[in-house]
Amino acid sequence: MAFSQFKRLIDTYTNFFLTCHETPDGDAIGAEVALYHALLSLGKKVRIINADPAPDKYRYLCKPDTVELIHSMKAAPDPGGVLIILDTNDIHNIGDVAEKLLPHVVEYFIIDHHESGEDISSGRVIEASASSTCEILFKIFSELGIIVSREMAIALYTGIIYDTGCFVYPKTTAFTFSAAEKLVQAGAGPYNLYTAIYESNSVSSLKLHARVLSSLELYYNEQVAVLTMRKECIDEAGALYEEADTLINIPLHSERIRVSLFFKENTEGLLRCSLRSKGNINVSDIAQKYGGGGHRTAAGFKSPFPLDQIQKMVLQDLAGYFPGTIV
């Protein structure tokens, strides 16, 4: 895989801004932090500026002042910089960063592993077959001869285990395991990182999980599961919105369930839909229909419609995969 476009950026510019999609996850944060340290090691000026804060469980990556929020930037952006967008190929998915930072940069560049439904005119490294954006960065660093420090290894390993579900999702390959081995050798600790990501939730998150799981509804002869989280659930549980991020996967633990849908409101009432699937069901196509994106088996979008309406629409979109059954 050639990374000549990215090397051109490194050779040409000194000032870099890094960002990722709204509500960043482990792969997004891991990619930002790894690239941040890589660019610093090359003598570059680097700032990570996001639309939303990272979940608290990633505090081991997000040291004080490492990640800024667009609404409270510590300083105005220096002119002449480049914006690198990680873990999304849609500039509409980076929140207010698009409006407040893009006008100040000379160009932007995308590094991502999601399927794209649009033509992309910017420079880019998009490898849809990769398990994660962190896996792509590992390849980039290897090809460009950038030494992976312990901090970078921890960040890259974080992204890989998050986006592979600990090495079980469909895009996990032999190369994924090979990269993980080298990252462990460079200082990433599998047990400590698994504990930080998957075993550090609050008691209030358990209360939130109980409320959301009680909303479970089944459709198409019990092959499609639907979970719902209203903003009131978050308030009643005293939890954080991001503490519900793994619930989408629970219905798929059932052998019979082929699709899991999670309709969730944040505390401001913004409605999002997460989609997961097994087998030949392409939920990315559905997400793209509503302005979102993702992978064949994992995708999402921000809903332009009220909950009852978008739920009916998405269920109808799945009808072709379940002939002979009714919603």
From TrEMBL:
This is DHH family phosphoesterase. PANTHER family: BIFUNCTIONAL OLIGORIBONUCLEASE AND PAP PHOSPHATASE NRNA. Pfam families: DHH, DHHA1. InterPro entries: DDH_dom, DHH_sf, DHHA1_dom, Oligoribo/pAp-PDE_c-di-AMP_PDE. SUPFAM superfamilies: DHH phosphoesterases. Residues 224-311 form the DHHA1 domain. Residues 17-160 form the DDH domain. The lineage of its organism: Bacteria, Pseudomonadati, Spirochaetota, Spirochaetia, Spirochaetales. Signal peptide: none annotated. GO terms for molecular function: nucleic acid binding.
